[in-house]
Fold these 3 entries.
Entry 1:
Amino acid sequence: MKSKNQNVYLTAKDYLVSEESFDLLYDSEREMLITSPQPSLENLSKYYESEDYISHTDNEKGLVNFLYQKVKKSALQSKTSLISKLNNATGSLLDVGAGTGDFLNTAKDKGWDIQGVEPNQNARELARSKNVLLKESLDEFSGQQFDVITLWHVLEHLPNLKDTIQQIENLLTPGGTLIIAVPNYNSFDAKHYKSFWAALDVPRHLWHFSRNSMSKLFSSKLKLVKIKPMIFDSFYVSLLSEKHKNGSSSFVKAFLVGLWSNISAWRSKEYSSLIYCFKNSK
């Protein structure tokens, strides 16, 4: 049920599993979009049951999967470099939504003491095959604290957003770093593709964030110290969006849209995806 400060922004379709349609409600108070209706916790997992859900597999078959896996390897180095720049020394690291464990493996090689949580069983088993042992729920870390907590395209998936954010904040050490990467529905590629924009990914994405919303969701003790663009995302998302819109992935069209999205964002700062870096001041 929508509240008085929520109106339908657009309606989008689940192209991966169900082909069901969902409204995206604009929450004017938090300047974000909310998927409606949201699946119950009991039914949410069925919307991830697809061999094409790439973050739960290491599949390289097909152009899109191949490009994703190749770019991911480069991105892993960029991610570990970022956490090193934001922290004076290595320490304890918790990755929420760790997928198949590749980021944690890379961080471990750099000297980080790693822990991770991943609710998907298949992804956890793939991570285990790489000697990365993941927990199923954040609840299993109750009472612990970490120097760095990361969520790489995960916050948009988490049910009970307010309570989960509070839980994550409690797991962060004083002076610790929280790093969150999410899609940006105010980017050029989002506005170009509209309901076909692949990063809407309803209903797996329960929430859709703007730059302003990300500064409103967290408590005052978390100071936003840096925002970084994820340049590749506009190309990858545009490639998927072309398939949603036209039935096939046009590499040329996707490249041009992705390129223009990054060029326009050079001034507006509204990149397809953004990394938000917070410091815990208490």
Note: The CA atoms of residues 15 and 244 lie 7 Å apart.
Entry 2:
Amino acid sequence: MNAIGKALWFIESHYARDISLEDIAETAGLSRYHLSRVFGLTTGFSISGYIRARRLSTAALSLAEGASSILAVALDAGYNSHEAFTRAFRDHFGVTPEEVRNRRHIGDLDLMEPIRMNTAPLPRLDEPRFEITPAMLMAGLQQAYNYGANAGIPSQWQRFNTHDGSIPGQIGHAAYGICTQEEGQDSSFQYMTAVEVRDTDDLPEGFESLKLPAQTYAIFAHRGHISGIQATCHAIFSEWLPSSGYQHAGLPDLMERYDERFDPRTGMGLTEIWLPVKS
């Protein structure tokens, strides 16, 4: 069982109780930092969002079976008041707990069932190469995405590609997809479509900049269609990193690098995945 499989098993066994991210990370064999990121990449949900959805789904089942006390159901779901539970339940399902208990069915509710990990083997990774890079100044378009709701990334690339090659101060021809996450935020991530630049003078309207520190990267090859890159990232975080002897260095979470070996028209070719590491 890989790291995310272990995390899901632990959550399913303990989600009705007050469990911490530290407990889940220890079971998975990952740091809190790595776990929160790879869980979202792998499942499409944040850890807190998945646990909340599982608790509310269990509560909905209890209510549909005619639970005598809504407050008792609320407490079992981790809410300390009837009011807080009702708000969360209505926000999640669009109906109140009273409505579900009164009608005695859940046929129209989108319940969160336990996620079952795909048992198909993850892609086999080539051994990474390692590069020590100086600080890099990146500039491009940046947008926030919720895990599982990143369908806007291709259109972000389309907007960015209208500028690529004519960005003031651009260094080289490679383009980068840079994933970052704000401290304490596990439900969404920032994705920047960018190039390396010498300075940030005269950038196109809407462009943002990001300075990456001098550091070591483990660089992996993803071959084939770009739609399979999530499985490659999953293999890197859940299999290679925990057994590598390295730790994630912090910024960025990971970085995709696209050069002449990748065809943006077909989505085929070779993409490099750069992971900042430290020993």
Note: The longest strand covers residues 136-146.
Entry 3:
Amino acid sequence: MSGSLAQVYCLSGMDRVGKRTLAVRLASRLLGVDPEKIYLYPDFYYLNRGIDEKTGKERKEISVNQIRLLRSFLQNQSWYGGWRIIVIDDAEFLNEESGNALLKNLEEPGEKTLFFLLTKNDDLLLPTIRSRSEIWQLNPVDEDEIEAGLVKLGCEGERARRITYLSSGRPGRAIEFYNNEDRLQEWEEETQRWRGLWKTPLYERLKILEGIVGEKNETERKEIHLQKILDIWTEEGRRMLCEQTKTINDREKLGVLIKTIDSLGDAQKMLEQNINLKMVMEKIMLQF
């Protein structure tokens, strides 16, 4: 088996499609350790952007200091004389400095050293790193497969269908919803709120806006909470677009929907720039 392995794999695909799960399962097989214990195993190294302690948000980049710590790990011999496996999540966020530092290890990784680079889009990787990687593209999973998998886990039919609809072909999200009913209901309520906005006049949408901006959440920052709402709206908006392109020939109506979906993406960028939250959300409400 070891003779057939490359030394650097890039697993590319949307969030929650199963990139990290696949990397961890492959690592657990090679290392001979239970997947649930892999993160404590001395010959396994996991790296992502991490959280900025000052802002409470994900860091914008993987820093060169993080790669230096990884290189310290690689300078040591394997604890058990077998594989050393490194998983780098959000690999597209390697900047030029950290990417070049990592490149030296990718060029000469050492015996029985294996890298998994996880990314939403392999085209965003530094070209020098991408050229040294074997690319695996992970596509959304068929809804019938996800529903069958949920039923096999013991999920009853109607709940399995609810989860399948909202998972959008992402097994990781389906499992999250299966294990967390509150999270499932949160998504359902937000998709219903999004669809309801299309049936309400502007003055009611602005009232809804006041409620959204004023919502209190004890566990996360307001900007992060709004980003999650916008993610759900964007996904549901795309579902609506798929539905309407099949049943509606009104180009003007479709154009409004497309413009509104685009405004969600603009709003997310504005939130990242710390622009006034109410102004960001008002811009969306005016698009309908």
Note: The chain has three domains: 2-137, 141-179, 190-285.
